[in-house]
Every structure is written in structure tokens, then in C-alpha cells.
Amino acid sequence: MSARNSADHGRDIPEATVARLPVYLRALTTLADQGTSTCSSEHLAAAVGVNSAKLRKDLSYLGSYGTRGVGYDVAYLRYQIAREIGLTQDWPVIVVGIGNLGQALASFSGFRSRGFRIVALLDADESRHGEVVSGLPVEPFDDLARIAREHGVAIGVIATPAHAAQDVADAMVDAGITSILNFAPSVLQVPEGVDVRKVDLSIELQILAYHEQRKLPVAADVDGVGEVSA
Amino acid sequence: MSARNSADHGRDIPEATVARLPVYLRALTTLADQGTSTCSSEHLAAAVGVNSAKLRKDLSYLGSYGTRGVGYDVAYLRYQIAREIGLTQDWPVIVVGIGNLGQALASFSGFRSRGFRIVALLDADESRHGEVVSGLPVEPFDDLARIAREHGVAIGVIATPAHAAQDVADAMVDAGITSILNFAPSVLQVPEGVDVRKVDLSIELQILAYHEQRKLPVAADVDGVGEVSA
User: Fold this and answer.
1) CA B29 to CA B87: how far, in whole Å?
2) Which site among A112, B21, B63, B143 is 20 to 30 Å from B206 CA-CA?
3) Is B198 in contact with B182 (CB distance < 8 Å)?
4) How many other C-beta atoms can be found within 10 angstroms of the C-beta atom of residue A198?
5) Measured in whole angstroms, how far is the alpha carbon of residue B71 from the centre of its chain?
6) Are A186 and A198 spatial neighbours (Cβ–Cβ below 8 Å)?
7) A102 marked as part of a ligand binding site
8) What is the dotted CATH code of the domain comprising B6-84?
9) Where along chain B do its domains lie?
10) Are the beta carbons of B205 and A101 separated by less than 8 Å?
11) Which residues bind NAD(+) (chains A, B) (predicted)?
12) Measured between CB atoms, which of A155, A198, A207 is closest to B197?
């Protein structure tokens, strides 16, 4: 894929490769947990679900080529990828919108283990303020700028309803937050230099549906066009 | 990307294109809501964040080429994509694991609007059984097979802790479920013919961190290697 991110200046790592690095890291962590110290590109590629040529190409952007006949050093490759992504740093994160999803995110162990430290939970609902969720008090949304400044927050997570998401994004941008992870089902307008990643919980379901449809008999295709026939 | 899904027999749509179809659909829905009846490939491509050549190539797999000087008919293209994905069908879905994430998924409006009908919520915790979440009672996990059979469930969503995910996946497979959306931070082993899509809530954050790191001065790279210098 040739898509590039405006913030990715200098280094020439394709966006598709960037998107796979966390997946490689997760697979390597599993291997390390199993006590595996080295692995072949074929083994790692299989664990991740890409072909080994693509894996080797991806890792070559990190200057990592493995050792012929030995493969990759799991511990060192983990470090290389973590450093490349930036996970060797500490990333203070705030979450805005402490409904079920926000609470799920606040309690998600996978953030902390990867260097993402949730430093504050914000909600506009006064009745929630002071409530403690996963060890953090729910704070007023109006305090976003102060909280972001105090903690040096670079990444903001939006877990509000769709109608509130743009206002939250605007406030985050005003507060100097330059990376936004948006769980709300809405498209956000942000200025140049601010990165937004969107998580649409239904998109993975739609991809499953595409394949599921192809397991069904033609008759199941309600409009009868027979899209599912080979 | 050349990655193909084992269940995608017959039609020759690359996996990367399949992954973009729901994104195009979302953009087209936004355009339709705005009263737009036709749009150029450039406009749609910009709304989605791909280049227009890639967009035209993707849509050509659907046999949709637009009209020179006019562009694409928004309503018809929406129908073509929805039919291709299978959203013109009704997809009964069950969710296992009714913690904060499971509750967030149960109340997520974006599923129903795309043909995904959550027909049952299951949890192994007896103390939750009978509790009503988003209009559905929480039912015993042990009833999974009966419930899946009664509703003709094809897609199962796992929102349990990591340690429980494989057991849930095994039970889903035994119950004849052939598509699994896994929110648990664990790698699932499933037989051939069963599709698993994994949602790792931290991966999008890691992609943001990669770009965020490149906005920081070199000094912020704690190991001092200066990866962020252009």
C-alpha cells in the first residue's frame, strides 16, 4: 500500500508496514513467553498471517535481516520493533467518555504493558465526576486542557457518543493533543499535523460477513444475483 | 497486499480491498445522509483516505466503474458494496462475555444498522444470568450450542478475558459458528474453514505512537539512537 501519513516525515516505512509492526510485536511477545529465543521468518510470518517475503521486507525497513540458518533473535527483534514504534517511551493517554466502552478501555491491561499509561478519565456528565474507574477518578471534561498540560498528554482517546466526538476532538486539539484514537462512529475534522485513527467496531464484523456469505449457498443471497457462486 | 482468506473461494477480491469496502460504505452513507447523489472517485477517495486510482481499482472488482464526468451513483454504489459484503442479509450475532466491553458492544448502534443483529448475550458468571443488557437477558454460556442453533448464529463475538477466549472459541466452533470476532488479547486456534478476526484495541494506539514519536525532538527517543531524525 502506498498510503503515507503526513506526520511520517523522514523515514521511508510504508503505512501498511507500520500497521503490521504491532502485530509482529504481539507474535514475538507470545514466542518469548513460550521461551523461544530465535525464530525463522517462515515461523513468524505464519504466526502473523503474512507471507515470509512480506515479513522479511517489512523487517528490512528496521534494518533487521535475521541470520541465515538461524532466523531472528526474538528478544532483539522485539526491542527493535518496540523502539521503532516508540513503545520504549512512556505515552500518557487520556480517555474521554467513560461509558461502558470507556470503562472497558480504562481497565484494558494491554495498554499499560505497551507503554500507554492512562493518566486521566474525563466525562462531561457531572454525576460521574469523582467516581473511581480502574483506580482513576472520573474528572470533568472542562478540565481537559489543564489535565493534558499537567501530564504532557500526547494521545487522546474518544469513547463518547457520535454527536459529542467532534467537540471532544476540537478540545483535544486546542489542548495540544496531536494524536487521537476515535471510537465514536463519526468522521472527525482535525487540522494538519494531527493524526486520527478510527476504530469502527463494526468493520471487522463486515469483513467476517463478506467471507461468511461465501460459505452460504447461492439461495442465501437474498437479491438472488448469486454473488456467492464461484 | 496479497494475503487471501481461506474462505474466500471463487471471487478474486484481494483481502486488502475487502477490508476497504466497509470504509467506502461508511463514507458513501455519510454522503447520502448529506443529500449527495453522485460523487467523483477523487471525492470518495479523499473522504476515505486512499488515492483515487486505488479506489477505482477496488470498485472495479465489484464491476463498478462510475460514469465519466459524473462519477459514481452514491445510492447504487452503496447497494453494490452492501450486497458484496453481504449486508443485504440479516446476520444473527451472539456476544460471549458481558463485561464492560460486552455491554458496550451490546449497546453499539453501528451493528444493527449494518445488518448485524445481536440475538443473545452469554456469560459464564451465574450472578449475571437474567440481567437485562440493552434489552437482552444475559444467558448461561453453557447454553451456547442451543442458542446458536435456535437463532442460526453464524458470527460469534468473544469479549471475555484472555484466559477464557480459547474455550469460548472451541464452544463456538462445536456449535457450528464459522466466523469469530475476537476482542480478547489472545491468539485463537480454530479449524480450517473458521474465520477469526482479531480486534486489538492497542494496535491503533501503537500506530499513533509511531507517528507521534516522529513529531518529537530526537532527545525524546529515550535510547538516544535518534530514530526520529529525518
Assistant:
1) 13
2) B21
3) yes
4) 20
5) 28
6) no
7) yes
8) 1.10.10.10
9) 6-84, 91-203
10) no
11) 97-102
12) A207
Q: Which of A9, A110, A185 sits opposite B185 (nearest CB)?
A: A110
pLDDT at B230 (0 to 100): 28
Cell 529525518, located at residue: B230
Average pLDDT rounded to a whole number, residues B59-82? 87
- What is the predicted ipTM? 0.75
CA A95 to chain centre: 14
CB-based contact A56:B180 (threshold 8 Å): no
Count of residues making up chain A: 230
Among residues A81, A185, A58, the alpha carbon closest in space to that of B203 is found at A81
Distance CA B201, CA B198 (A): 9
For residue B217, the model assigns a pLDDT of: 63
> Could you give the CA distance from residue B141 to residue B133 in angstroms, rounded to a whole number?
15
With the CA atoms of A54, A58, A61 and A64 taken in that order, what torsion angle do they form, in degrees rounded to the nearest 10?
-90
Residues A222, B100: C-beta atoms closer than 8 Å: no
Longest dimension (CA), chain A: 62
**Phi, psi (deg, nearest 5) at residue B133:** -120, 120
pLDDT in tens, A150-176: 999 989 999 999 899 999 999 999 999
- Min Cα distance B22 → chain A (Å) is 6
B213 and A19 within 8 Å at the Cβ level: the answer is: no
For residue B135, give the C-alpha cell: 434489552
Q: What is the CATH number of domain A91-203?
A: 3.40.50.720
Instruction: Please tell me which of the candidates B51, B91, B100 has its beta carbon nearest to residue A209.
Output: B91
Distance CA A138, CA A153 (A): 16
Look up cell 535475521; give the residue: A66
Provide long-range contacts, Cβ within 8 A and 24+ apart, for A37-45: A37/A73, A37/A74, A37/A75, A38/A70, A38/A71, A38/A72, A38/A73, A38/A74, A39/A71, A39/A72, A39/A74, A40/A66, A40/A71, A40/A72, A41/A66, A41/A71, A41/A72, A43/A71, A44/A71, A44/A72
